[in-house]
Amino acid sequence: MYATNYHRASSVDEAVKLLSDAPDGKYVAGGMTLIATMKQRLASPSDLVDLRHIPTLKGIRVDGRTVTIGAATTHAEVASSAAIRAVCAALCDLAGMIGDPHVRHMGTIGGSVANNDPAADYPSAMLGLGATIVTDKRQIAADDFFTGLFETALEDGELITAITFEAPEKAGYAKFPNPASRYAMTGVFVTKGAGGARVAVTGAGADGVFRHAGMEQALAANWSPDAVANAVVDSSTLMSDLHATAEYRANLIKVMAKRAVAAA
Predict the structure, then answer these.
(1) Is 226 helix (H, G, I), strand (E, B) or coil?
(2) Where is the FAD-binding PCMH-type domain (predicted)?
């Protein structure tokens, strides 16, 4: 590590002001990615603005089928929320699969979404649910939010304050986890709602999380695991690494999609 200035913000306005005054500052909540990156000296922010003590960034509210989750809400809190489970159990199941207990009790939904790791779980849920990412400046549809590997539509200094979505009629999530990190080597989040079916894939795309139009069309016509079995998955758009080839991930997308639909 190296010297950095630490600030504990007590409000969103204070956090934004502290970051704007810093020459090269970063927001930090759970720090599950940022602190590890700093330890490896791959990032060296001049200032860290701690968001963990801002009350308005925490909490879960379910009003009918409208779900609002504060950005600083931890994965463990999402996983254990009876209110969310009553309308969208798949999101609770997803949160319960993230990392290990330490990660789940420190990491936050806002941090995960803002980081947009290509193997993270939450981005697929955001796309699959057609969620809205609320910031201190605006509201961004999930379809417009994720723009590439570790890239989002967030502007410099923009802060995610909440996630909101309408709970679908059905939802399911399945992933093939890396046995060490528990990151998704391939994960698929599926939903069925008034607007049809949505299928979002994480951990496999060469450009990050994406929706699979072919599977969405198949499920809109026939909501069953068999409907996605014959879908065409183009391996040329998928990543290859030491864990799995693109061709292997293409097959995993089908397998995880079938399991997600069955879970839903």
Answers:
(1) helix
(2) 1-170
